[in-house]
Amino acid sequence: MPQLNFTAVTEFTFEGFFIFGWHHRLILFVVFLVLYLLTLASNAVILTIIHLNCHLHTPMYLFLSVLSISETCYTVAIIPRMLSCLLSPQQTISIPDCATQLFFYLTFGVNNCFLLTAMGYDHYVAICNPLCYSVVMGKKACIYLASGYWSIGLSTAIIQVSSVFSLPFCDANVISHFFCDIRPLMKLACADTSIKEFITLLISLCVLPPRPALPMLLIFISYVLIVTNILKIASAEGRKKAFATCASHLTVVIVRYGCTSFIYLKPKSQNSLQDRLISVTYTAITPLLNPVVYSLRNKEVKSALLRALGRKPLS
């Protein structure tokens, strides 16, 4: 076979949003910076409120605390470099840094999805089996669940990062994205990626954000059982109270998975810019939903926040 001359790639360049002019990129920078700062601040507020209020030291709010930490780390892994891309004339990233970003993106992304599943399970036990709630959702059980989900995120990230960066990268080094993601990276490989793409597809269908089938299925089953039990409640007031218990969580789940699933179920597009704009929804916007929704729709959190501000909660 003839020897092919390739230049090994040592760094990648993000294409980002350079299809836009400088003024448009500056507007995007301001918008994303505001979203980023709001995400950091609101998650910090949620964590502080839960830590200071002993009434919120329950399994539900333990998962919410862990989710806030995970969402914060998730945005820190992506958004700062994206903001830098919007301002810099050319944004490069070394292969080790790219692998590190992909690792944290996958770890926290998968973890977030399963934490929402744990919160759905918590609602299921509270509504469908309230007499055994304190036993089933004890401190050890919550720690095991949270630890298990972190393990799934770490394992998934290790497998995927090892798979992607075992590929050779030659000549082509422009990533059609604003961060290191699996598919844009595989497109740059100068080797057959069909097997690795198939493995990635299988893993993606199970756990990878933004539309992981397994967590979505588990949440769906939880809410089918929850709704079935709520409809059996005789009083309208009881049904209303039960629905209100899971309103915040259900809102986050519908917005997070509903929008991205709708977008990804459409016919596949070759428009990489469109894919990048879609990615913005689950990297810059949805991390803000968790603290905002739980602050605005959750009565206990609102009461704790008002008390922290020195104001009397509304009855």
Task: Spell out the blueprint of helices and strands.
Layout: E1 11-14, H1 22-52, H2 59-87, E2 92-94, H3 95-128, H4 133-136, H5 139-164, E3 174-175, H6 182-187, H7 194-206, H8 213-230, H9 236-245, H10 247-264, H11 272-296, H12 299-308
Parallel strand pairs: 1-3
Antiparallel strand pairs: 1-2
Quick rundown:
With 315 residues, the chain is mostly helical.
Search tags:
3-stranded mixed β-sheet; mainly alpha; disordered N terminus; 12 helices; 315 residues; Rhopdopsin 7-helix transmembrane proteins; 71% helix
State the end-to-end CA separation: 80 Å
CATH topology: Rhopdopsin 7-helix transmembrane proteins
Largest sheet: 3 strands, mixed
Approximate strand percentage: under 5%
Which superfamily, in CATH terms, is the homologous superfamily? Answer: Rhodopsin 7-helix transmembrane proteins
The total of beta strands comes to 3
Estimated helix fraction: over 70%
Describe the protein's architecture and organization:
With about 325 residues, this protein is an all-alpha fold. It has one domain (about 10-310): Rhopdopsin 7-helix transmembrane proteins (Up-down Bundle). The chain has helices at about 20-50, 60-85, 95-130, 135, 140-165, 180-185, 195-205, 215-230, 235-245, 245-265, 270-295, 300-310, and strands spanning about 10-15, 90-95, 175. Strands 2-1-3 form a three-stranded mixed beta sheet. Mean pLDDT is about 80; it is low at about 1-5.
